[in-house]
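Handout, section 4.2: multi-component inputs.
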Amino acid sequence: MDIITKPKLSRRIWDYALLTILAVVVLAPFLIGLWTSFLPTMQIAKGNFLSTQVSFQNYIDAFTQTPILRYLGNSLVISTATMIAQLIFCSMSAYAFVFLKFKGRKFLFGLFLATMMLPFEAEIIPNFQTVKALGLLNTYSVMVIPFLTSAFGVFMLRQSFMQMPIELKEAADIEGLGHFQFYWKMVLPYNRIPLMTLGAYSFLGAWNQYLWPMLTTFSNDFRPVQNGLRQLQSEETFNDWGMIQATAAIVVIPTLIVLFIGQHYFKSGVNEGAVK
Amino acid sequence: MLKSPAQSTPTTPLSVEKTKSEIADQEAKFTLNAKDKYFAWAFLGPSLLILGVFIFYPMVKTLYLSLFLTNTVGKTTVFVGLSNYINLLTSADYLSSLGVTLFYVFAVTIITIALGLVLANLASKRLPGIGIFRTLFSATMGVSVSVAAIFWLFIFNPSTGFLSLASTWLHLPQIPWLTDPTAAMWAVIVTTVWMNLGFTFLILLGAMTSVPTTLYEAANIEGASSRFQFFHITIPSISPTLFFVSIITLIESFKSFGLIDLMTKGGPTNATNMLVYRIYKDAFYSGNYAQASAESIILTIIIALFTLLQFKVLEKRVNY
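Output:
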């Protein structure tokens, strides 16, 4: 809502005050957590929230006494692999639905559409049996293979592939480009922005997985960071609030940085899907 | 909202189909090529394989399991027809889970949308430095489920938590946040709303900033109050987006699992034992795979209905 008329000064002060208060309220849980991550656990336990004994000790403890770096590394591997796979397989499927004419295209498209109605959470029993039978339990693969593609990604890319100017395809036909060349040399570069949006989505989606890794990983060697943090809380560190808050900060800060850099792409991608 | 794993984002409105004439138009522009068939299989093959193995097959298998009794390793023993469903829908315990989930889902959705509208409406004003506030308001998007749980578990902690300290300072009565059934439900709702807020805010802001400014200029000339403008210009103009985020929030809330596991483990006394957590417990703790499968099918039906509603309404593009 962009009101162009010049607002009065008092009105502006009121707006800024309200914005600041709301920002503090929204960020409060984060700020409280960050603050306690610098306090000794003894002081937190005593309720001495305004203690002045601030230090980086909790962070040193978190890095040296917990496998938090290993968890982060695991999540990085899993999320990167998932992202790359989805970019490739989703764009290939979207290409087929937009640029290839074949029998059963409508039916297959309907099939993809249907998968959006089936929640993965309701399929964990057979999926667990499947990966167990394949000997994939407690590996990186078990957290990547079921998510190599996503109907969401296919739809998002199909939507933007369809908006490509028809002249590009005609030019490619005249040049004698085959499908693989057209896909690789023209379709992908032309759709950089939606591809980056999907990349960000699939990366964060994999990063935030919780239920599936919890069922399929049992050791710190493969456990991603969400489940790692849970593991730390259930271990002896349970009441070491200072260190737990430090691990949370270590996890959230890189995500926030990535998010602020990628925010533009999120916004444009989602809105495109929402209202076009 | 990005807590959703890659597969569980079935809620996008990207179904936004081209109209029939557009498709026909497009098809006419491409020359039919017999070789396309082989390319189609090459391009679609990998995705079809994955969706087949991890989405379609397990749905059929879950349906199958739900019609049998199963042993402790999940093998079927006796065919029982619909009796797993009948048992569930007549069990006070399951109906209570269903009720608890519905309460949670609607509370989360209504509060998230209301707060998202407040934040987006404020942040859509053209003020110097507004970009900073927009970034701050969207920050919870970057907070993952276990980090959010840690932040809020500390806030709700009965002995050393922030709310407990604040109540002491302000001489307010202590609320046993995670041990009282009602308070625990609200603790989970508040945490979920907080996690959702960044995403919801960003989407609503995007919609609000693309409302034509001429509408507001006209309203200003007529002397319409800002409240009137909000309800009679902003809300109707962003209704497609409003509908989209509401239904996404609704569907994601039905699938909530992480926060329940991290904060309450379904307790106290099943007060937060929601549908997905229940499936997990019944299958992987109690080994009652048949019943968990029936619960999975019920969950799928609920989510499929809301997704279909979303497809239908988006096809009509709400009103503009």
